[in-house]
Amino acid sequence: MLDQIQLMRIFVAVAEEQGFAAASRQLNMSPPTVTRAIAMLEDRLAVKLFNRTTRYVRVTDAGLRYLEDVKRILNDITLANEAAQGVNAKPQGSLSVTAPVLFGQKFVLPAVIEYLNRYPNTDVKTIFLDRIVNLLEEGYDLGVRIGELTDSSMRAKRVGSVRLALVASPEYLAKNNIPQHYSELKDHALIAVQAGSLTPDWKFVENGKTITQRIKSRLSVTTNQAAINAAVAGFGITRIISYQVVDELASGKLKFILEPFELAPLPLNIVHREDRLSSAKVRNFIDLLAGHLSEHSAFN
Question: Which of 10, 52, 74, 84 is the most exposed place for a label (fewest CB within 10 A)?
Answer without folding.
Answer: 84
